[in-house]
Fold:
Amino acid sequence: MNRVLTGTGLAIACIVLAVFLLFPLYYAVLTSFKAGSELFRVDYWPTDIDFSSYVRIWQEQPFARNIFNSVLVATLVVLLSLLLSLTAAYALGRVQFRGRKFLLYTILGVSMFPQVAVLSGLFEVIRALGLYNNLGSLVLSYLIFTLPFTVWVLTTFMRDLPLEIEEAAIMDGLSPFVIVTRIFMPLMGPAMVATGLLAFIAAWNEFLFALTFTLSNEQRTVPVAIALITGASEYELPWGNIMAASVIVTLPLIALVLIFQRRLVAGLTAGAVKG
Structure:
């Protein structure tokens, strides 16, 4: 009887949590199919489906270009983060040297600063490098908050790998580069997928740096483009366009999570249980 009550309570809790998490997305999809005065009417079920908001966001601004910018920036950030953090994780997790723990905590400390605290200094650096209103400024700035996360996570996984594997590779005369790329990288596949996907989501959704370091519509990413959507006239509210754009830019993230679901779960739970 207790098991039945526990299972029922757990099922109810899961349903309530799912509704709480999914309802904003559901209502955004519902609102994106409305137009005109229907936007002010509260409906919980679809009535008339109107695709005009989806058509307008492609016609009234370079939304395709904004999506391309976000994909390009997020992909470059993930590749650079994984490349740098994998080599750093090998040094911090497998190589013994003085100051290793201090360096690791320093990397963690960098991630504790809020974005606004480093905004002015980073702006001066980007302007000095001639990267203002350039996608390179976003790639450089996004590494500030993706690298500490990926380094810490991959260092943890690197430490958990059996020492015997590395010793056998060294006995075979393999260099550290070959050990990292040919042996450790395949073993850390789930961890790299998990950290890479989370870094991609963070770069895809970032707003403050993208708003500060880009000026023209052609260089903006989708979060800034959505925030700056306006109606065709001063009397037309753009909520339908905003909801339609939000739904469009959310779909790639949902697809990535569904595609890499197994590796994501394996990467997040690896090392949680040791026998």
Observations:
- The two ends are 33 Å apart (CA to CA).
- The mean pLDDT is 83.
- The chain has 13 helices and no strands.
